[in-house]
Amino acid sequence: MRADGRKPDDLRNIVITPHVNKYAEGSVLIEAGETKVICTASVEERVPPFMKGQGKGWITAEYSMLPRATQVRNQREAARGKLGGRTMEIQRLIGRALRSVVNLEALGERTITLDCDVIQADGGTRTTSITGAFVAMTMAVDKLAQQHNLSKFPITDYLASVSVGVVQGEPVLDLNYAEDSNAKVDMNVVMTGEGAFVEVQGTGEEAPFTKQEMEALLQLAESGIQELIGKQKAILGSAAEKIGK
Amino acid sequence: MRADGRKPDDLRNIVITPHVNKYAEGSVLIEAGETKVICTASVEERVPPFMKGQGKGWITAEYSMLPRATQVRNQREAARGKLGGRTMEIQRLIGRALRSVVNLEALGERTITLDCDVIQADGGTRTTSITGAFVAMTMAVDKLAQQHNLSKFPITDYLASVSVGVVQGEPVLDLNYAEDSNAKVDMNVVMTGEGAFVEVQGTGEEAPFTKQEMEALLQLAESGIQELIGKQKAILGSAAEKIGK
Amino acid sequence: MRADGRKPDDLRNIVITPHVNKYAEGSVLIEAGETKVICTASVEERVPPFMKGQGKGWITAEYSMLPRATQVRNQREAARGKLGGRTMEIQRLIGRALRSVVNLEALGERTITLDCDVIQADGGTRTTSITGAFVAMTMAVDKLAQQHNLSKFPITDYLASVSVGVVQGEPVLDLNYAEDSNAKVDMNVVMTGEGAFVEVQGTGEEAPFTKQEMEALLQLAESGIQELIGKQKAILGSAAEKIGK
Amino acid sequence: MRADGRKPDDLRNIVITPHVNKYAEGSVLIEAGETKVICTASVEERVPPFMKGQGKGWITAEYSMLPRATQVRNQREAARGKLGGRTMEIQRLIGRALRSVVNLEALGERTITLDCDVIQADGGTRTTSITGAFVAMTMAVDKLAQQHNLSKFPITDYLASVSVGVVQGEPVLDLNYAEDSNAKVDMNVVMTGEGAFVEVQGTGEEAPFTKQEMEALLQLAESGIQELIGKQKAILGSAAEKIGK
Amino acid sequence: MRADGRKPDDLRNIVITPHVNKYAEGSVLIEAGETKVICTASVEERVPPFMKGQGKGWITAEYSMLPRATQVRNQREAARGKLGGRTMEIQRLIGRALRSVVNLEALGERTITLDCDVIQADGGTRTTSITGAFVAMTMAVDKLAQQHNLSKFPITDYLASVSVGVVQGEPVLDLNYAEDSNAKVDMNVVMTGEGAFVEVQGTGEEAPFTKQEMEALLQLAESGIQELIGKQKAILGSAAEKIGK
Amino acid sequence: MRADGRKPDDLRNIVITPHVNKYAEGSVLIEAGETKVICTASVEERVPPFMKGQGKGWITAEYSMLPRATQVRNQREAARGKLGGRTMEIQRLIGRALRSVVNLEALGERTITLDCDVIQADGGTRTTSITGAFVAMTMAVDKLAQQHNLSKFPITDYLASVSVGVVQGEPVLDLNYAEDSNAKVDMNVVMTGEGAFVEVQGTGEEAPFTKQEMEALLQLAESGIQELIGKQKAILGSAAEKIGK
């Protein structure tokens, strides 16, 4: 039994609310327990300079936390005049993960920017961002596919992400902040609907971990991610059926 | 009749939802039509260097828009590495306006930071931020007053703000983005519960305006602000009665 | 009687010295008592990216103070690596005010940059900058109109600015620094030669103000501005007669 | 057989040259094939502000590439005025990995900064940096331990790192740049002398990977890291024997 | 005969106007032909961190050009967000040169900041800044010496600076911008009243120069500098007599 | 006799190792005693915007020190977010010096960037950088001349640089850090193979210097530079013979 009453392999309560923004081509509010992230997908009919003329599109992500998303107020990165290392690392991860399930040729010379803005943080903000951003991106791509009558749906598979870790000696799924602070091992896993790994990032800063622990964690992550993909499908409705087609 | 069916002296639909953040000492989501702003008040037991040792507190504000709060996505100021002039101007205005109704000596050597994050923008984001931030600040001050048993309630009067402008030749209240883009005169007014002016900022970039127009606009603003203060009182409940005591 | 011997509706001693810079298309040194500002107008045969291809020109302004323009030396913004909020707010105001009396189509695809550099500050630097910059701009436009034989003179009306405020309970015109520091209300007003308002920015940070105070202040501002426009005309000579033609 | 004649489980030629800097408390030049990194360890008798007064030390790392470390010259981050996301991610990784084998209490209130400067890059710069920085850090700690007669040697275990990946369908160890560019999966692994994982970062941007592939890669990494630790021991000599004591 | 009618060893018309700023402890406007620089000296009763506790003072300088000091408008360094290399080089030179004639122990733990703001530039702005800053600094030091009854006057010798160069094959003194642009050799010389060199910076970017040319240039510089020192003495009056005492 | 056993006119031990980088078009490691600098020359087939369309090439330089090149670790300029004044001054000097012996028309519309990265510093890093960069540049130009069959070899003369100074009353050549810290006069000299001056930068911050001292220093510099040019020739081999042809 965990402090909040969950079993080791329980996700937190996951709520995905679509269409929370009236301008964005795709948008959701995703809540994983007390972690709340607004994900919007913005489409532009151009690609960044380094991609020009290749007949391919681009997917990129930005991540930010509101100053009071956390227990103690954080200074805004805009006020400090630069992005922190953690922010850069996270937005690189989100972009890379989403690109792994997008056929950039099928997308055409367009950029989709996923903005993941954490309204409230209670652990797992990067994994929750990926899970939510996938839904916002799919909504935007679905609109694009209809408007431009794309012959191939540019999204090739489902994608979701969750954190796992070893807390008080036991592998657990979807850590909240209190658990995360006490975890001996902390691992973020991104997987596809097919069950393949896109990213595995495990850190044992407090204490190194064994191959056995790693396997147990990956198992937990896999089941959690399949559950998350179920929730994505429910929200996406008919768009979900086009994925991989 | 205006494009959205309002009469010239109608506010948009105003909804103030309290306690939207579990960490902040005070918080609201304020909606004015399609404009949505999260306002949080964060209390720190210290003042900025230039205020040290004076036995007084400080009120400051920060303002930001999510990148897709607008029709076309804006680049993040954190990514550009600096705050824009518009942002600085707005956050200076919010801070100045709120300080005008706070007794800084009664507050003691504390800082309250009001973060106004625009989730969706449809005109009037600065005035809506002031109106919402006043509620979040009062919640935080009420908590402080109880915890520290302050002898004097540090908030001296109500405060709210609204925009007015001349659109198609007619003075109107609480402009949305479409109206604002076509306004010949654009004025932001901040007033107290007592009906005195704290800020009047009128701009006739497209065309200068007359004294008569100005008077008509101020009249509209006054009635709109009294209505907004009514809504603030309803949300604040018992804390509202302590104001000015 | 005020500390420096002026009556409430007296301007300080205003001196406008033209042609203080041998390179700029228009330039003045404007002195309002001990406040001294060099205003230069620089013409470029191109417009900023966001204005391209519209057949219109652009007017923009930059404002700065020398480090020792003030009693206590200020750090240079160049050394700090960014413009402060006050600077941005002021230069946005100057640009906006000047644009209100320029016919941008008549100007053609050109940019005029007004640099207002405060050599010495004793209150009213932003209003003095506007009054001086109008003269420098008109000189530069006059040169342009002659060189390019413009069919319509691009400046449509006179423009000047002054500060007013309530000091020791009395509305006064053109505050110096000592008065400004003690003012309960501080208002900057920009008006045209026709007597219409372009900007009204009133702030009652120390104490809110009434409609009656506001009216008295606007009255004072109007008379001061008409006097300033008289001085502008005297300096501009024949160019003055082309305005609005 | 790989393009450079290595077998899948062959490391490149590894050369660690100690004492390449006459000022640093510890220093090596580490070469992995054509990848060359200078690692220096600098000791300061103070800790960063967030660590003050806890009786513990701190280990931090910085990473940089000379502009012409790569085939095409890169702009300096100092000239661009900010660290890139990749640099930040790498230096966070190096610091975190090294801290996992340091007893910060035993170190005392001191900071050791590991500078990893890539002189020439041919793949694997981050893993090579970790392997080299561990040696430089141990040299510096050994000096400290002797000078200050530390009762406990602050380094608790060996640490080295290597990259593995799937190239042309086959799992291979220690990828050079040409291999890395064509890898379907790219994984960086950090392990201790005891054989436990400290960091596992696997990315399948081009194509997701299976659990079987992951296991094969981790196996390769483990054998490579044990070989690297053998080389570290040879260089460290007597200091090596104090580790974990 | 030079283009402006001067002989090779003629300075331009030099005018030094004292007390041009009502706040600064020392100030001059120095004009060398069409080059015009405002130099102010600001005294602070503290030293920078790296000088603390040594019982010595510090002299530092900052240099800037107004945007339209030049034929073509320059972007402000504050707007670009950083100081250019040329600016840094010049302000380092000014500070170093002035410190060479100040007894920092006699000054006590105080900082004097010399601000050299170029109002109009026509060649020789850095040398003119040094010559003017020396006067402003001496005025400020004289005030300090009187207020604090310093036993030793902290300025040990006169100091002035001039440019020399080889233009159309002939060595000339005090180049204006047109000459400077065509000079084959460009040299800035700083000398003391005693006739010793403090700085010699000669550059032959267009063409290297011989020892003979160098000697001729230094000769010219020496006579020019003695003439400049004569002008400094005339302005400084009684303060001049305290130098070196 | 100097502290390290050298006579006043002795250079330190100079070692130039060519081809230390496998990617750069030209590269050396140059050592002057304990000062060690990697110089690489990178060729790009384009020129900076301000040089476009003139049929001429460009030579530019960048200079940096590794953080632990010095006794006490320095903060990285990339981490501080800006280049320091000293760095800018040095890289401007290196670029200017090298350009003085390059025929930019003969080079064609190409840029050569010289990166001088100080691996270890013991005085004279800027002069050593110039001497080494000349060799790297000549290697790169030689390659270019062969590949593109240039009709004229773009390098017109040799170029080297050395520091001289007055230490303990005596003029000495090629100061190490300990000598430099105690020098009363510090001078950096750049000369061509023909024996002409390209840069002379003498500073007497601690004490001004006489014409006699200056002449003695220039004499020393000249002999040192001729010796350095001898070493450059030995390394350059056949490329050396093309210079000035």
Automatic annotation (TrEMBL), chains A, B, C, D, E, F:
The keyword Ion transport does not apply. GO terms for molecular function: kinase activity; tRNA nucleotidyltransferase activity. Keywords: Kinase, Nucleotidyltransferase, RNA-binding, rRNA processing, Transferase, tRNA processing, tRNA-binding. Residues 11-140, 157-223 form the Exoribonuclease phosphorolytic domain. Phosphate binds at R86, G124, T125, R126. The keyword RNA-binding applies. PROSITE patterns: RIBONUCLEASE_PH. Its EC number is 2.7.7.56. InterPro entries: ExoRNase_PH_dom1 (IPR001247), ExoRNase_PH_dom2 (IPR015847), ExoRNase_PH_dom2_sf (IPR036345), PNPase/RNase_PH_dom_sf (IPR027408), Ribosomal_Su5_D2-typ_SF (IPR020568), RNase_PH (IPR050080), RNase_PH_bac-type (IPR002381), RNase_PH_CS (IPR018336). PANTHER family: EXOSOME COMPLEX COMPONENT (PTHR11953), EXOSOME COMPLEX COMPONENT RRP41 (PTHR11953:SF0). This is Ribonuclease PH.
